[in-house]
Design a protein that fits this description.
Elements: E1 4-9, H1 15-26, E2 30-35, H2 42-49, E3 53-56, H3 62-78, E4 82-89, H4 104-134, E5 141-145, H5 148-151, H6 158-179, E6 184-189, H7 203-213, H8 216-236, H9 248-259, E7 266-268, H10 272-281, H11 287-298
Parallel strand pairs: 1-2, 1-4, 2-3, 4-5, 5-6, 6-7
Length: 303
C-alpha cells in the first residue's frame, strides 16, 4: 500500500507559514497547519479550502504542543495509509532593537518561540516520525526554519540571532543523531521576506515598551534613536494579508527540502544583495570595515 505523506507545520497564520502550508497542500501532501490565532480565522478558513487541516497551536505552551501532537496522531490513526513525513518548525518572532533596550520578556519570548518551541514540537512528534520509518517511509525529516541572522549576527538582532544560531546548531546535532534511525534534520534559510510578512507587526508597540522600560538616564540617551527606528520600521512593516508571500524561489527551495530523497543539511535562499554582503563580511577586513558594511546592509536611519 502506497503511503500518503503527512507534513505538520507550525506558525501558519500568515506570511511564510501560511505560504508553506498552502504550497505543501498543492504539492499533494496531507498538511496539518499549526495556528497561533486558532482555527476561526480567515487564514485557517482559506487553508481548509485547500484541504489543509488547521489546528490551534502555541509552541510556547507544553499543553498546546501536546494537543497538536495528538491531533496529528489521531489523523494518522484514522487514516492507515497516512505516514508522517515531515515536521516543519516555522513559528518565529523577531524584535528589532539594541540588546540594552529589550525587556527580559522580549528576550525570553524570542528564545522560547524560536528555539525552545521547535524543541517542544520535535520532542512530541519524533516518535511518530520514527514509526514512519518502520512503515516503509523514505527519509522522514525535521525541517527547521532558520535565518541568515543565525549565520551572520547583526546589531539590533542580538536575541533573534542567538535564537536562530542555536536553532542551526541544534539542527545539525539532531541530523547526526537521527541518521542512525533512518531520519534526518534540515535547516531551511528562506532569506528576506519582511515585506510579505507580519513578523514585525508589533514592532512599533515593542519600541514604545522598550522606551518606557528604560531608566531616565537610558531614555535620555536612547530616546531619539528608538523613536527614529520605530517610525522607520512602522513604515516598512505595515500589516500584510495572511497570503501575501508568493516568492517562487523561497517556495520552490522549500519543496526541495521537503521532498528530496536525500536532503542536504542546509537549503538557503540568498538574493544577490545577501550574497555580496555576506561574502564581503567573510573577508579579513578590519572590524571598522565590517561595521561599515553592516550599516550599509541594514539601511537603518542615522540618528
Amino acid at each position: 500500500m502506497a503511503l500518503k505523506r503527512v507534513v505538520a507545520i507550525t506558525g501558519c497564520d500568515s506570511g511564510l507559514g501560511y505560504a508553506l502550508a498552502a504550497r505543501s497542500a498543492r504539492e499533494g501532501l496531507v498538511t496539518v497547519a499549526g495556528m497561533l490565532n486558532g482555527i476561526d480565522t480567515k487564514a485557517a478558513t482559506a487553508l481548509a479550502k485547500l484541504t489543509v487541516h488547521p489546528c490551534s497551536l502555541d509552541v510556547t505552551k507544553a499543553e498546546s504542543v501536546t494537543d497538536f501532537g495528538k491531533f496529528v496522531s489521531d489523523l494518522l490513526k484514522k487514516n492507515p495509509s497516512y505516514s508522517l513525513h515531515a515536521v516543519v518548525n516555522n513559528a518565529g518572532v523577531m524584535t528589532i532593537g539594541d540588546y540594552e533596550w529589550q525587556t527580559p520578556s522580549m528576550i525570553e519570548n524570542t528564545v522560547n518561540v524560536n528555539l525552545l518551541g521547535p524543541m517542544r514540537v520535535v520532542s512530541t512528534l519524533l516518535p511518530q516520525l520514527r514509526t514512519s520509518v518502520t512503515e516503509g517511509a523514505s527519509s522522514p525529516r525535521v525541517i527547521n526554519i532558520a535565518s541568515h541572522c543565525g549565520l551572520q549576527p547583526l546589531p539590533g538582532f542580538g536575541a533573534y540571532s542567538a535564537s536562530k544560531a542555536g536553532l542551526l546548531a541544534w539542527t545539525q546535532a539532531l541530523r547526526y543523531e537521527l541518521a542512525a534511525h533512518g531520519l534526518t534534520a534540515v535547516a531551511f534559510v528562506p532569506g528576506g521576506f519582511i515585506g510579505s510578512s507580519n513578523i514585525l507587526s508589533r514592532q512599533a508597540t515593542q519600541c514604545n515598551t522598550m522606551l518606557e522600560s528604560l531608566s531616565e538616564e537610558q531614555q535620555s540617551f536612547y530616546e531619539k534613536k528608538i523613536t527614529t527606528l520605530r517610525d522607520y520600521l512602522q513604515n516598512v512593516s505595515q500589516n500584510n494579508k495572511y497570503d501575501s508571500l508568493s516568492d517562487v524561489d523561497i517556495l520552490e527551495t522549500y519543496i526541495k527540502a521537503l521532498t528530496d530523497d536525500n536532503p542536504k543539511a542546509v537549503y538557503k535562499v540568498e538574493s544577490w544583495r545577501y550574497t555580496i554582503y555576506y561574502n564581503l563580511l567573510k573577508l579579513p577586513f578590519p572590524e571598522i570595515a565590517h561595521r561599515w558594511l553592516i550599516k550599509k546592509f541594514l539601511c537603518f536611519p542615522d540618528v
